[in-house]
Write a structure and sequence with these properties.
By secondary structure, this protein is α+β, with helices and mostly antiparallel strands. The chain is built from 2 helices and 7 strands, in the order E-E-H-E-E-E-E-E-H.
């Protein structure tokens, strides 16, 4: 039995045990927020909860790691006030010029 999530008004299916990030990627959605500085798109990067690139608002709670949150029926994703997902501390590495593949802990 699959779950139904809503991402910015669009219904997204998720299988039991799937993360929010996996469900979004399976639906063809590869980015769900932008950086506070530069407005660069962000989505899934490491997939294991280390990099914080996949932050998303889940049921009104901002800055949840989509790769760690289990998808559940009826979840509302990415529906916070404009800018709520952007500009978090997780953007520091990206905004400092990280291009991908670097060790985030040292960025």
């Amino acid at each position: 039995m699959s779950h139904q999530l809503t991402f910015r008004g669009v219904t997204v299916a998720a299988e039991p045990g799937q993360s929010v990030a996996a469900a979004l990627i399976a639906a063809g959605i590869t980015d769900w927020r932008t950086t506070g500085k530069g407005g660069r798109p962000r989505g899934l990067f490491c997939g294991i909860g280390i990099c914080f690139d996949c932050l998303i608002t889940v049921d009104g709670i901002p800055d949840q790691r989509a790769c760690l949150v289990a998808a559940a029926d009826g979840m509302r994703l990415g529906d916070a006030e404009p800018g709520a997902d952007a500009g978090s501390g997780a953007d520091l590495a990206a905004d400092a010029g990280r291009t991908g593949g670097e060790d985030v802990a040292r960025a």
